[in-house]
Amino acid sequence: MLEAGFNSVNQFLSEFVKSLLSLVKVVIRGRHMARLPIRQLPVCSVLGNGPSLNESLADHFDFIQQTEVVCVNNFAHADIFLRLRPQDYVISDPNYFVFTEQTTDRDDIRRTLSIFLEHVNWPMSLYVPHFAKGSYLLGQIERGNPQIKVVYFNYTVVSGFRWLTYWLYSKGLGMPQAQTVIIAALTLMINRRFETIYLFGADTSWHEQIRLNDQNQLLIKQIHFYDKPKDVTHQPVYSDKYRQRTFSMASQFLSLHKVFRGYEVIRNYADHKGVTILNASAKSYIDAFERTQIKWPVASK
User: What's the number of domains the chain is made of?
Assistant: First the structure.
């Protein structure tokens, strides 16, 4: 009885401290409320870049095209990007926003920028964190392609009392920890008040590709649906800018824990907002969302 009471008080104090720290972060970093565009349809499809997306696009392209389509990060590298013509695109990788004309080691970012400038000839909203404002990449896009509307969101991680964090989420003043871009994309689409969100290409199977070499270096082979598997090899995952030390196995699995915990947080927030998230990925380790088989046609309003 005494222990239960102690645990209850300890939990309250922990949530109180987290809430207080979250409010301080919001005051310092999150003063710009996100202004999200009105949804175009009641249903959207969020497309991760996992290898299984190839199967989903082959089997369900017509279904996906009938929903509002949300792509992420380097999806534009795929030939199907120009056929799909997504209405929404989310980039949260901070490397995009330190990229400059002089950057020599990020051909993937240069390629994405080139595609945005030269080939996007339809209206598309590009969602990026507010700290990206003023970056070289966004300057090029805003000056070079009027079809792309940049939408800024706050990536201020907040936690604490659930009623407070949900209020901060809904006001665009904070987000759950977005260990992957999919978590950020789902948060944004929940706040745009879609009725149903379908998730494709969310394999979340990185643990299958973890290796340890004879020097105890952590290696990962990161395969995306647009890659040619024979061109992708296991590479060290460095923890320092001097590329001397890789992440430990413990830290790598802690990072994976944050990914899966983030999905649980998003599921609870979606339930609170009356939004249904359905995992339609051909392959996925995510257990937070209900798995589903595609039903056709999509109801329209």
Answer: 1
Question: Range of 149's domain?
Answer: 2-207+246-291
d(CA 261, CA 267): 10
pLDDT digits (tens, 9 = 90+) for 36-90: 999 999 999 999 999 999 999 999 999 999 999 999 999 999 999 999 999 999 9
Rounded distance, CA 210 to CA 21, Å? Answer: 35
- Give the number of other Cβ atoms within 10 Å of residue 246's Cβ: 22
Of 256, 290, 95, the C-alpha closest to 177 is 256
> Which one-letter DSSP state was computed for residue 78?
S
Q: What is the CATH number of the domain that holds 79?
A: 3.90.1480
Crossing angle of helices 249-273/181-191, nearest 10°? 10
Contact assessment for residue 155 and residue 129, using Cβ atoms and an 8 Å cutoff: yes
pLDDT at 299: 52
Q: Phi and psi for 240 in degrees, rounded to 5?
A: -135, 155
Q: What is the pLDDT of residue 31?
A: 63
Q: What is the pLDDT of residues 225-251, one digit of tens each?
A: 888 777 778 888 777 666 778 888 899
Give the tens place of pLDDT for each residue, 249-293: 899 899 999 999 999 999 999 999 999 999 999 999 999 999 998
DSSP state of 299: P
* Strand ranges in the chain using DSSP code E only, listed in sequence order: 43-47, 68-72, 88-90, 124-129, 148-153, 196-200, 210-212, 218-220, 235-236, 276-279, 290-291
First to last CA, the chain: 54
pTM: 0.91
- β-partners of residue 291 are 279
- Contact by Cβ (8 Å): 197, 276: yes
What residues does 279 pair with on adjacent strands?
199, 291
